[in-house]
Design brief:
This protein is mainly α and 100 residues long. It has one domain (27-99). Helix content is 83%, strand content 0%. The chain has 3 helices and no strands.
Amino acid sequence: MCCQSAERDEKIANSIRLFSWAIGGGLSLIAPTLLMKLHSTLLTQLLTAGGSVLFFALGIASLARGILPWVDAVNMAPQDVLTATAAYAAVLVVFVSQSS
């Protein structure tokens, strides 16, 4: 009985963790895109893209090293952090180039 409860609690915790990652990933793309669409000047788009990439890089690096106390460290090598940041930057750059 207690093992089933522990397994259930672990599944719920894992589901909440995955949902949190999905929400964070979605917001990290939707928020800057929405801001760049609402304020469509080139300066706003470049500053938003640059700031978002910096914030994303800091967040991914913090997750990779376990700096945030409420999140378990993610096993990522430095090149994985670079790859994720470059992919995120590429998505925002495409949006900026399509908008102007």
